[in-house]
């Protein structure tokens, strides 16, 4: 499709977006459906020696896509040490609910980092737990905790050689208030 300037435009956003979850998902859609909207995040990456390599603001947006069968998010944050203005860390996650197992299949694609991770998510007593593996086969555990209508905490852990979960990334996240039109 050509726009008024002769540039080819595809209606990708219009084809992806959905305003509601698919009706087959029922209450199970709420586990991640509660995050639909725009959030401001304090993004922190922690190196294996405990030093912080990135500590800055980010934006995390969640929405229903693909006829309400998937939740997609986009996470952006400034990259530490970048000499190029406007360079950012960016990635996206696709989450699809399996009502038979009451679990979610989750795929994270780090567009800047090149990291691709597949996890399985489920509700647990403290929030949401996601388990999977890094590209090298090392177990990963991500979690959403301290969940409220206006905030949550996200933690990304990796299993170290001693068998302990080591924090690699964390975010304190606050719902962005709607701006009046």
Topology readout:
Blueprint (H helix, E strand, L loop, with lengths): L11 H5 L13 H4 L3 E10 L5 E14 L4 E9 L9 E11 L4 E8 L5 E9 L2 E7 L5 E10 L2 E9 L5 E11 L6
Antiparallel strand pairs: 1-2, 1-10, 2-3, 3-4, 4-5, 5-6, 6-7, 7-8, 8-9, 9-10
In brief, what are we looking at here?
The protein is mainly β and 181 residues long.
Secondary-structure-based class equals mainly beta
Could you report the average pLDDT, rounded to the nearest whole number? Answer: 89
**Poorly predicted ranges (pLDDT <50, ≥5 residues)?**
none
Gap from first CA to last CA: 30 Å
Fraction in beta strands: over 45%
Question: Which terms would index this structure?
Answer:
2 helices, 10-stranded antiparallel barrel, 5% helix, mainly beta, 181 residues, single chain
Q: What does this protein look like?
A:
The longest helix has 5 residues, at 12-16. The chain has helices at 12-16, 30-33; strands spanning 37-46, 52-65, 70-78, 88-98, 103-110, 116-124, 127-133, 139-148, 151-159, 165-175. Helices cover 5% and strands 54% of the residues. It is globular, with a radius of gyration of 18 Å. With 181 residues, it is mainly beta. It has two helices and ten strands; from the N terminus they run ααββββββββββ.
């Amino acid at each position: 499709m050509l726009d008024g300037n002769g540039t080819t435009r595809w209606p990708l956003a219009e084809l992806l977006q959905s305003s509601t979850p698919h009706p087959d998902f029922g209450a199970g859609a709420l586990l991640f459906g509660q995050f639909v909207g725009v959030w401001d995040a304090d993004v922190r990456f922690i190196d294996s020696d405990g030093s912080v390599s990135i500590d800055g603001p980010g934006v995390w947006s969640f929405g229903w896509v693909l006829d309400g069968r998937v939740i997609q998010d986009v996470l952006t944050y400034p990259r530490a040490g970048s000499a190029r203005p406007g360079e950012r860390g960016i990635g996206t996650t696709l989450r699809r609910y399996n009502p038979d197992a009451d679990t979610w299949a989750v795929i994270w694609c780090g567009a800047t980092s090149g990291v691709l991770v597949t996890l399985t998510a489920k509700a647990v007593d403290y929030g949401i737990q996601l388990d999977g593996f890094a590209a090298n086969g090392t177990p990963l555990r991500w979690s959403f905790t301290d969940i409220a209508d206006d905030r949550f905490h996200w933690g990304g852990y990796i299993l170290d050689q001693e068998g302990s979960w080591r924090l690699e990334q964390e975010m304190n996240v606050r719902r962005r208030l709607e701006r009046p039109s």
